[in-house]
Amino acid sequence: MKKINALYIGAAIGVILFVFLLIVPPTIRMMEQLHFDIQSRWIILTTIIPIISIILLYSVLSYIRALHSEREKEQVKEIIKADLTEDEIFEDALFENEKMRVLSVIHSFAKIKGKKIPLSAIEKKTNFDIDKIEDIIVLLMADELLDGHFDYPDDGPIFVLPEKKEIKVRYIKDSKENIEKKDEKKKFGEEGSDLD
Question: Is the pLDDT of residue 44 over 60?
Answer without folding.
Answer: yes
